[in-house]
Structure formats: C-alpha cells, structure tokens
Amino acid sequence: MATIAIIGAGPRGVGILERISASTPELRTGTLEVHLVDPHPAGAGRIWRDAQSPLLAMNSMAADVTMWTDESVVCDGPIVPGPSFWDWAQAGPDVTGWPADMVAELRAVTPATFPSRRLQSRYLTRVLRDVVAGLPPQVTVHVHPVAATGLTDRGDRQVVTLDGKPPLTVDAVVLASGHLDATPAPAERALLAQARERGLRYIPPEQTTDTDLSIVEPGETVLARGLGLAFVDLVVLLFEGRGGRFENGRYVPSGREPVLVAGSPRGAPYHAKPEYGLRAGRPPTPHFLTPAVTDALPRPLDIARDLLPLMAKEIAFGWYHELVNGHPELVTVSWAAFLARFTELAWGSTEMAEFLAAAVPDPVDRIDFAALNSPFAGLEAESLAALQPKVRARIAQDLRQHRDERHTPHLGAFTAMLSVYGELMRVQPEVAPESVTRDVPRWQSFFNSVASGPPGFRVEQILALSEAGYLRFLGPGMDVTIDDAGFRATSAAVPDEVRSTILIDARLADPSLDRTADPLLAGLLAAGGAREQVLVAADGTELRRTGLLEVRPRDGAVLDAAGVPHERRFAVGPHTTVKAAGAFTRPGMNAQSLRYNDAVARAVLRAVAQTATAAA
Q1: Which parts of the sequence belong to the FAD-dependent urate hydroxylase HpyO/Asp monooxygenase CreE-like FAD/NAD(P)-binding domain (predicted)?
Q2: The pTM is what?
Q3: Residues of the chain with pLDDT under 70
Q4: Where along the chain do its domains lie?
Q5: pLDDT score at 581
Q6: Helix 11-27 with 592-607: angle, nearest 10 deg
Q7: What's CA 408's distance to the chain center, in Å?
Q8: Dihedrals φ, ψ of 6, to 5°?
Q9: Are 507 and 270 within 8 A, CB to CB?
Q10: How much is the pLDDT for 180?
Q11: Could you say which of 3.30.300, 3.40.50, 1.10.287, 3.50.50 is the CATH number of the domain covering 198-270+470-505?
Q12: pLDDT score recorded for residue 583
C-alpha cells in the first residue's frame, strides 16, 4: 500500500485529490491511502468555511465557478466533468439542516449571482463528497481535522506530526495550505511598537475575516491603507456588519459606524466585475502570446522588453474581438480587415494608434491601459470634501461600464487577461531575476485591479457610504506617518491631512517563508528541507527575497536549502513560486490551476509508483 498526505483540505487540496483519483487507474495498480489534513472544514477550508459572516460574498458569479475539468482543459490526465456551482444550485441540493437564510439564498441564485462564501462552502463540501464517492476501488481517503505541525524524513518515507494526534508516516506529501499567515514584517513590527508606545491602535495586514474589529469605536475616524478585496471585506464588516443596511441605493446607519478614510498608492478601488456576457463568444486566445512565440524568444526573458508588448496586444485582442464582432455598429471595419491590420502592426506604435483611431471612432471604445491601471490619475481638489464627488463620479462611471452591455469589450479583455496570466506564469522561471523583481509586482497589481475586483453591488454600497459621509477617499499617493498626536495621512490629490488614532492595513500579509506562522513550514526551513526564493542578479547581488516557497516549476516538488528537489514532497498554492490564478476557475477556460493540479497529482502518483502494495 502507498500512502499520501495532503496538508490542506480546502479547494487546492481537494483539487489535487480529484486529479489523483482521475489518474490512479492509469498510473497505479496497487492500493493507495490518502490522508487529508486540515483543522478547518474539509472541502471548504479556512477561507470558504461556513463559520463566517453571511454578509461576505464571493467575487465570482455562480456560473463562473467550477472545480472540475471539462473538454477545454488540456492535460495528461483524464477529463472528469462535474457540476459547476450553478449546475449544483440548479440541481436542488439537499438542504436538510441548513439555516433558513442560506436556503433562501440558494433558491434565489441565478447565473449572475455573486453567492455568499458560506453558500460556496456548501458547494465545495459537495465537491469533496463527489470526489470521494468517485474514487477508484483501490483508493481510500481519511480526513484528519487537525493541524499538521511538522514534517521530517524517515528513510524513504516522511513523518507528518499532527497537533494532539499520532503522527502519520507516508510515502509522499503535498503541501496545499493556501494563503499562509505570517508574523509582521520589520516595518510593520516597528509601526506596531511605535503605536503601542503612543497608545495608538494599528492592525497589520491579515485576513480581514479574522480581524478583531471590536477595537474600532463608533463615530471615530479610522485610516484604512489599501483598496483591494481586503478593504471591501473591511467595509462590509464595519458597516453592514454592525447593523447598517442599504435601501434603494442609500445607506441607513445603525449608529455604530466609524468614519473610514481610505487610500492607497493607486487611490482607486478595484474595478467591478463585469455583469454581462460576451456577445461575440469567447475570444480565441492565446492569439499573440502563445507558447510557440514565447518559447522562441531569447533567454533569459525580460518582461518589459520581450513580453509586455505581446501581453498588451493579447489583452487588446480580447477587447477588440468583442468590440468588432459584438458591436459592429461602433467600428468602421469588418473583423477580417481589422484583424489583418491589427496583426501586422506593433503594439504601441504610432501606426497602431492611428489605425485604432480610424477603426474605432469613439475613444471610450478603445482600450486604455493607462486609465485601467490608474483610474484616478491626475485627480486633484482643493480639499478632501471637494475631492469626494470627483471620486464618486469616476467610480460610478467605471461601474456603469461594467454593467452596460455597450461596454462588453471589458469582458473580452478580462478573458484574454486570464490567458496572459497563465502564459506568464508558465515562462516565469525563465525570466531574468532583475525583470521578475521589477516587472512581476507591477503586472500582478494591474491584474488584481482589473481582473480581481468586487461585485458591482459592493461598488454601489461603497458609493452609498461615501454619499452618506461614512467613507472618504484620500485619492492617489496615500502616505502615512506617525507622531505623538497619532497617525497622519496625506495624499497627492489634496492639501488636507487626516489624523486618527487607529490605522488598518487592509490587505493580506505579504508571503514570507522566514516569518511564516505555519510551524510545519518553519520547521522545514530551519532544518534545510525548504528554501525561500531569493532573486539574484547575474553578478551575484541579492535583488529581493520573495517570501515564496521554492518549488520545481513543472510539478511543485519542494526544493531543499541546496536547491535539490525532494522527489516525494510537493507544494501548491499562493505561498509557492508557481502561481495559479485561483483554486477554482470558470468553466471552459482551460484553466492553469486545473492543468497544474493534474501535473502535480501525476507527479505524486509516479513518485509512489514503485511502493510495494500489501498484496505484493
């Protein structure tokens, strides 16, 4: 019998289990025992657990969530279709024992609904149940609802130490823990110490759902640094979570609200998720940024020099495929003529700009990367109060473009961006360290802002809170300092400063292997069984420590301190050097996450292929 431990039983761990199940009949004849280890509910895991506020929603629509492979997925393992979230909801799952509000939510779900995370937990639980029910006869699964606290080698096998339970001795291990907590970074520790010395309150980056917000007093001014998804959760919990409600586009207060003053370097919240479908169908991507093209480029790659023009052209291709085919009345040329000229011209050239101006008369119908990346660029006002209507106007305009079907090219660009993300991640191991240091954070920030935004109804709520005076935006270029009077926030948009005795860093902690709160990974690092990725220039100069667990790109094998891969120890997820866009994906997208799950699962099965079975 061969044994495998999967540390982390959320969507990533379950995705690996499903792919192990799919490929076992091909790659293993003997019996196989799989142990799922997670202190949080198996299937849902920590992020999607049922025990969280029912107000918190997904950032994906019901029709855009699946854990299963389909005919679009190009992988070596068998395709095993299964229900998307929407399929599952339509089928009428057994709701015995469900809370009444969750039953009501399920009954009201449509393909365009953004379900609550609690409802998503029920779908993920069903996925795990279906995976287990479909296991080959020689595979058994055991769930251990405890934390894994250590991992050591014992000959050819590995010992997983469990919190309060006997250890597991297994043949292979997959680390699939998802987002990891970390102790504060040096700058955050310094700010914590300074805040405590002055009797101030500072909340460093962390999962907002786990933050103790009881320290925020009603009526006080609170500084929030960060305007991404963690900020959206913060807004939900501080306002609606305290009894406020939204009626007819207006906020009705409970009397327990603070006043939130928020900003970031970009100064703008993430773009809302598009709420329409594609009129022209999914653009045939990749078209310009293809594996054949990128494989032919000289190594090492430089993103800005070699890839960025192709990345931009690919995303623009998705935009214009939808515009020209879905809205022919808005352009002056046919798709065949457009594509021929678009293909021959270099992105960013004067000729391309002239062609697009002639082919697409209205500037609003042309893709504008600068505006997408920095929607508040140039925004200024004589005071913070005067800035607010200007900010609301831009946010409202952006929301309209993500709801009005005149602007479906945004969705075409979004779809192409997913393709670009996958190809960039594929070739990233061959990108020069200097370029990774300089260019990857910029790309990730742009991708998050454009492709990882909140549902439109959340943006509506943000606008309502701003109209009511409970939420104020500082604009781009936020800067925070601390002195004996408290925290002081300024921005490039207004001459005003805002003072507060509380600062919340509304974002996730940066990944850090050497500051990880996970005892298993900390122990591996200390023992030399793992290493943090360090980007080093050609001359040996250290450029940056990424905080990521270094793995072999093709299959996630964990590298030890000397850079040698452990052939029976694997890791997947955002804490590793191989990034996937998410643990689950849209149906029909040939998703990188599903393809990578397949590659890792098959590597795990090959690693234990020679393990003797009990029958042998």
Answers
A1: 5-179
A2: 0.95
A3: 581, 583, 611-616
A4: 2-181+565-607, 198-270+470-505, 291-451
A5: 67
A6: 50
A7: 23
A8: -110, 110
A9: no
A10: 82
A11: 3.50.50
A12: 66
